Amino acid sequence: MIRVKILETNREAELDVKQIIVKDLLSILGLTISEHIVLKNGEVVTEDDVVEDNSEVVIFTVKSGG
Amino acid sequence: MECRDLSSEELERYSRQIPVIGCEGQLRLKKSRILVAGVGGLGSVVLYYLVAAGVGEVVFIDDGVVELSNLQRQVLYTTEDIGEPKVLVAEKRLRALNPHVKLVPVKATITEDVLEKYVREIDVVVDALDNWETRFILDKVAWRYWKPLVHAGVGEYYGQLTVVKRGVTSCLRCLFKGIESSGRGKVVVLATTPGLLGLLEVNEVFKIILGVGEPLYNKILVFNGRKPSLDIIEVKVSECRDVCED
To answer: Quick one: which H or E segment has residue B105?
Structure first.
């Protein structure tokens, strides 16, 4: 089970998979990697990294404007 | 350091702040040198409060001119300033606000060469930019000289804030390594969002200069103005030597 929290919408989800690639996870959630930071157990991961079973994932939008 | 090192005018000007930070704190601010990259929505607020509070010197860099669409959020400028270089208008407003502060306006595109001239003499670098490409240049130079970099980014109702410092955190390029760095779209943002995040950036600068509290090292503050909420996310330090120390 992989637990995911999306801060922007305060949405929480549980994925019943053993592992998943970050870009596939974002795709399932309808999010784009270019605008989001993904933390796996507190560590920043990128689109080709793998999220394993029992991981806690936090996703938040990053903004570029000033 | 004593209160006698401040003039009677300064003691009166900062009289609502000195009871909080002491004369020693006020003198620390007075001796501090801050670089602000970008003088837009974030930078307007950052500069205003740094100067009001009595830092010693601010270097501010921007190559833009004031546009009508800036005025909804860039509070240093007025309708009469349209077409004028931002850094020069900012200098005029800030000098009127607090003549004790040394102002160094730099009208230039922010490049590694430009930053090299200023960053090594600076205590804290503030990211008030509007694109990742320039942010990562700023991060590179701040990292090179071991200077703390206060980062914020805003859009719509949202913003994020963190502080990076070599030896303590990962660099910005590592922390935000998945983010697409190219592209400079128009900023679309509610007026209050850069104001709030800019103030939080100044608060981080003060904590660093004064040596009080806990700067946002290895933490990212995520602001959502629609809820409203502030989430503080803890981030583990990554090595990222290939990214940070190139």
So the answer is: strand B102-106
**pTM for the model:** 0.95
Listed by start position, the domains of chain A span 2-61
Chain B contact present for A10, CB below 8 A: yes
**CB within 8 Å of chain B, chain A residues 21-60:** 33-39, 41-47, 58, 60
Q: In CATH, which superfamily holds the domain spanning A2-61?
A: Beta-grasp domain (3.10.20.30)
Whether residue B196 lies within 8 A of chain A, CB to CB, comes out as no
Contact predicate B47/B73, CB 8 Å: no
Q: Does B175 touch chain A (CB under 8 A)?
A: yes
Find, in chain A, the residue whose alpha carbon is nearest to that of B222. A60
Q: Which domain holds residue B72?
A: 32-244
pLDDT tens digits for range B149-182? 999 999 999 999 999 999 999 999 999 987 876 6
- B138, B236, B238, best to mutate vs chain A, most A CBs in 10 Å: B236
ipTM summary value: 0.89
Radius of gyration of chain A (CA): 11
Q: Name the domain count of chain B.
A: 1
In a domain, residue B117? The reply is: yes
B61: tokens are 């860099």
CATH of residue B84's domain is 3.40.50.720
For residue B214, being part of any structural domain is answered with yes
Which one-letter amino acid corresponds to residue A35?
E
Distance of CA A10 to the CA centre of its chain: 13
pLDDT of residue A66: 95
